[in-house]
Every structure is written in structure tokens, then in C-alpha cells.
Write a structure and sequence with these properties.
Length: about 100
């Protein structure tokens, strides 16, 4: 059953950047891309636990700051020759408020 958690207003997420929220043991990164799309993924890189929220956002991809792996913000999957996947959370926006489905 869906459990929608209210996070913050979209304006609180920097364009081409992110904010981190903690929910229990989960560390969740909320990204905003250049076109103001919002993506919500696990903040932990599938390679060696780099903080994806500290990475560089380009298109709908974040490049991990540790070893430059590219992670697709839509799928959580690693791009290129590397492999792995981090969790993606369903999100919705209502009246500029971001909700995520835990
Ligand atoms: S920890 Fe992210 S690329 Fe190595």
C-alpha cells in the first residue's frame, strides 16, 4: 500500500542540484534537473557507497563524486560499461509540494 510522505516544496531543491532527507535508515536524495524535473533516488552509489547528492547533475543523470560513475536518475541504473542499480522512489508533486512513496 502506498505511503506518501510530504517532503518539501519544489523551490527548496536547487536546479541541477539536490537535497537529502532521512527516513528511518533510508538516505534519500531529491534531484532537480535543468528542466525542473524532480527525481528521487537512494543517495548511495551502487559502486562503493558514494553520496550521489554530492555529484554533478547533467540531463537526467548524476555523476558520482567518488569515481565518476553515471547513474540514471529515472531508473537508478548505472550507465556505460559499469553496472549496478540504486533504488528509485516514486514521487509526485501537488501544489508545488513534493511527496515520495515509501
Ligand atoms: S562510489 Fe560512486 S562511482 Fe565509486
Amino acid at each position: 500500500m502506498a505511503k506518501w510522505i510530504k517532503i518539501t516544496e519544489t523551490e527548496n531543491i536547487p536546479k541541477m542540484g539536490s537535497r537529502v532527507v532521512h527516513y528511518g535508515d533510508l538516505e534519500i536524495a531529491i534531484f532537480k534537473t535543468r528542466d525542473d524535473s524532480i527525481f528521487v533516488i537512494n543517495n548511495i552509489c551502487p559502486h562503493k557507497q558514494g553520496k550521489l547528492s554530492e555529484g554533478l547533475v547533467h540531463e537526467s543523470v548524476v555523476t558520482c563524486p567518488m569515481h565518476n560513475w553515471d547513474v540514471d536518475l529515472k531508473t537508478g541504473g548505472v550507465l556505460g560499461n559499469d553496472s549496478g542499480c540504486t533504488n528509485v522512489y516514486e514521487s509526485k508533486i501537488e501544489d508545488n509540494m513534493i511527496f515520495i512513496n515509501i
